Amino acid sequence: MPTEKAKPKLKLATLTVNAPISGEAILLTEHHCPLISHQLLGHGIAIRPVGSRVTAPCRAIVKHIAPTGHHLTLLTEHNVVIDIYIGDNAISTHGVGFTVKVVSGQQVIQGQELINLDLLKLKQSLPSVDVAVLISKGALKLTPLLGTKRAGEDPLLQLIVKKSDT
After folding, report:
1. Which helix (H) or strand (E) covers residue 160, if one does?
2. Judging by DSSP bridges, how do beta strands 43-49 and 131-137 pair with one another?
């Protein structure tokens, strides 16, 4: 009689992604950019900012920063990819209004400042300054948490992820 191989159990973990900027967390469908609002770049949530400091939403490594500073990609210890997009059509600013505080490859801790924004300049030159926090890889389930958020302090997304073996 053949023996059945036991299937390995999937080990799961939860990951809390905090708000990277202070403001009102809204549904992604309310974002001005159609690529983001139709979730073509990932699933997540948007924030209508009132603050100017973009902070690390959790411990991660900075994998990519756009030369203009309007987009950055973070990789968490559970191999979750978090993309933060600032504003709609922000590439047109050529970086004016964005002061990047980190470099690609840098390890960051939750709450550490990543980018500083000049919201007055950005509001004058962009159709929207909403900040999108997108999960493009690694989450099995995502729960957005709407409402008023403080940068680096308040939970924005609850994720169910595969637990890493390391």
Report:
1. strand 155-162
2. antiparallel
Domain extents in the chain:
27-162
Q: Which residues pair with 133 in a beta bridge?
A: 45, 84
Contact by Cβ (8 Å): 159, 142: yes
Cα separation of 32 and 47, whole Å?
11
Residue 41's identity, in one-letter code, is: L
CA distance 58 to 45: 15
Write down the pTM of the prediction: 0.90
* pLDDT tens profile 89-124: 888 888 889 999 999 999 999 999 999 999 999 999
pLDDT of 3 = 57
CA distance between the termini of the chain: 37
Q: State which residues of the chain have pLDDT below 50.
A: none
Residues with Cβ within 8 Å of 139's Cβ and at least 6 positions away in sequence, in order, are 15, 43, 80, 159, 160, 161
Nearest residue to 28 (alpha-carbon basis) of 159, 115, 143: 143
Size (the chain), residues: 166
What is the Cα–Cα distance from 23 to 38, expressed in whole angstroms? 22
Considering the segment(s) 27-162 as one domain, its CATH architecture is: Distorted Sandwich (2.70)
